């Protein structure tokens, strides 16, 4: 039952991951990210998603250390950036992230993008398998992997990824990828679930929102959860962080989910994973 901020999905290795967490993409290191994460933890959030390239791991770690929430109750995700992919460089990048966060282990570590250079993400994955086997990460996964990237990885790995974090919202509902991940026991996770605010005035969504006396953002996040997709909306405003979490007291009908699914236009606001290779 997804009925609270502490509700979790169980990854294929048995690790429990919260269905809803806080994303900190484009949140400035220092006071902004510290206040954002602390507000979320005080409100009951138990999952925080950062990345090396966000350059705010130190602030995330500071917020965690200053909160009253025990470390083992917080699910912390970070990601290895493209320029650090490869076996040895991934191991080094992981150490750097852990040091900045001030943590002894990570709950989830992701390959940020499928760098297409020959075998690059496969070498990166081998390093992640080592870190996992060494007990330094509780779960490992990928981000922005399309089906063909996953097929390549599954054919060449010892441990299959537990999570695939991708751009996912009503304009890009990734139906085939979602079905592929479900079939292979890979938990799909949404980044930019609110399309950076681009859907907040969408008529279908506003109509459903009015019915439930909710915001369009809350309708989208509820749609994520009912589609069995983990979601990590970002905000630096405490009232918005609270609002994003207030999605557990109602349920969309199958007809409403169908209407939202029908908004798909395969429209991205982020890069296409097959064309993105920024170092």
TrEMBL record:
<dbReference type="InterPro" id="IPR036812">
    <property type="entry name" value="NAD(P)_OxRdtase_dom_sf"/>
</dbReference>
<feature type="domain" description="NADP-dependent oxidoreductase">
    <location>
        <begin position="20"/>
        <end position="264"/>
    </location>
</feature>
<comment type="similarity">
    <text>Belongs to the aldo/keto reductase family.</text>
</comment>
<keyword id="KW-0521">NADP</keyword>
<keyword id="KW-0560">Oxidoreductase</keyword>
<dbReference type="InterPro" id="IPR018170">
    <property type="entry name" value="Aldo/ket_reductase_CS"/>
</dbReference>
<dbReference type="InterPro" id="IPR023210">
    <property type="entry name" value="NADP_OxRdtase_dom"/>
</dbReference>
<protein>
    <submittedName>
        <fullName>Aldo/keto reductase</fullName>
    </submittedName>
</protein>
<dbReference type="InterPro" id="IPR044500">
    <property type="entry name" value="AKR5G"/>
</dbReference>
<dbReference type="InterPro" id="IPR020471">
    <property type="entry name" value="AKR"/>
</dbReference>
<dbReference type="Pfam" id="PF00248">
    <property type="entry name" value="Aldo_ket_red"/>
</dbReference>
